TrEMBL record:
It comes from Crenobacter intestini. This is HD-GYP domain-containing protein. GO terms for molecular function: phosphoric diester hydrolase activity. Residues 91-287 form the HD-GYP domain. InterPro entries: HD/PDEase_dom, HD_GYP_dom. The lineage of its organism: Bacteria, Pseudomonadati, Pseudomonadota, Betaproteobacteria, Neisseriales. It holds the Pfam family HD_5.
Length: 350
């Protein structure tokens, strides 16, 4: 991992009032900063206890993560609990990668930031595995993706339902949130420098125009690049209060257009290969006009395995002349009942 270059606290009134930098260059919350993190209740919890595996395990992880997000300063052994959850994400991704990808696309998200944290952690873990990160760096990627926005949970939830552009004060918080999240994690007992480094730099960009430090390519570690890419990809693949999620092919095309600008082209290419143009959980129109659900990645990016909702026991191979894909179908908004039914498609594939 690259050595941590010198950091400077952004010179804004909010930063000066809520953050400080000690003699060792470590960012910490001031007393006023700590006051930002009072306990808050769930807006509307997603009760999906009847979902099938492995979605049920992901739902349990989301519930446990929510307990930390809603009252971060009151958690006992938060670092240990987060590490345990990271290990569970790793195990689920290794055991059921297609179902984990599908969960990103089909899970309703009444608590956007919480669901985004879990989704990004899953996708970053998958990318880290395919990038052949060593075990320590892979754990860093998983944990940083899970906690990168913990410092601005309520703001992120608000923005998820806000169709208008962020206000000036919201933009200031957005640009500061990597430092806020790192400082809050330190208050929670997280001391791992790799974890902090990755959270602090997960919005730095390949072209040097990221934030909050405007780092150059060579100053940004692979872990931060992977977390940034997973963060932006999940934001495009998840619905928000004012729009449906983007079809995967459109989302990936937008990311690919920004290769060597925002992102390392190597990692964008890896993401495209891993998800494919029709990832699990996506909806496709077959040449015969049927609506299919992708359940498993295929031999190529354009040839996944598909089922028809009324015949889920029959898996269709889209490489055959009988079942070619005409194109992606517009992803619908999925309610809880539909979600629970869809999760059963992966129960026997786990």
């Amino acid at each position: 991992m690259l050595p941590m270059p010198p950091r400077v606290l952004p010179d804004t009134l909010f930063a000066r009032n809520h953050l400080e930098m000690d003699d060792e260059g470590v960012f910490r919350l001031t007393a006023r900063g700590r006051s930002l993190y009072q306990p808050h209740p769930a807006h509307m919890a997603l009760e999906d206890g009847t979902a099938s595996e492995p979605m049920r395990s992901l739902a349990l992880l989301r519930k446990r993560l929510g307990e930390i997000f809603r009252d971060p300063l009151a958690c006992n052994d938060a670092a240990g609990r987060l590490r345990e959850m990271g290990q569970q994400v790793d195990a689920l991704v290794r055991r059921s990668p297609d179902a984990c990808i599908a969960a990103i696309l089909i899970t309703p998200c009444p608590e956007y930031t919480l669901q985004h944290a879990l989704n990004a952690s899953v996708l970053a873990t998958l990318l880290g595995m395919q990038a052949q990160l060593d075990a320590d760096e892979l754990e860093t990627v998983t944990l940083a993706a899970m906690t990168m926005n913990i410092g601005t949970v309520r703001l992120q939830d608000l923005l998820a339902g806000q169709a208008s552009p962020p206000s000036t004060s919201q933009r200031q918080l957005i640009r500061l949130h990597p430092i806020l999240s790192s400082a809050l994690l330190r208050e929670m007992g997280v001391t791992d420098p790799r974890w902090h480094e990755t959270v602090q730099t997960h919005h730095e960009e390949w072209n040097g125009r990221g934030y909050p430090f405007l780092l150059n390519q060579e100053e940004i570690g692979d872990a931060a690049h992977i977390v940034h890419l997973a963060d932006i990809a999940c934001a495009k693949l998840m619905p928000r209060g004012y729009r449906s999620r983007l079809p995967a092919r459109q989302a990936l095309a937008q990311l690919y257009q920004n290769r060597d600008e925002q992102f390392d082209v190597r990692l964008v290419s890896l993401l495209v290969r891993e998800l494919g143009f029709y990832p699990p959980g996506g909806f496709v129109e077959l040449a015969g006009g049927e609506l299919g659900v992708v359940v498993k990645r295929g031999a190529s990016a354009q040839s996944p395995l598909v089922v028809l909702p009324d015949a889920p026991q029959h898996i269709l191979d889209t490489t055959t002349p009988e079942h070619p894909i005409k194109g992606a179908a517009m992803p619908p908004r999925i309610n809880l009942q539909q979600y629970e039914a869809l999760t059963r498609l992966w129960e026997n594939l786990a």
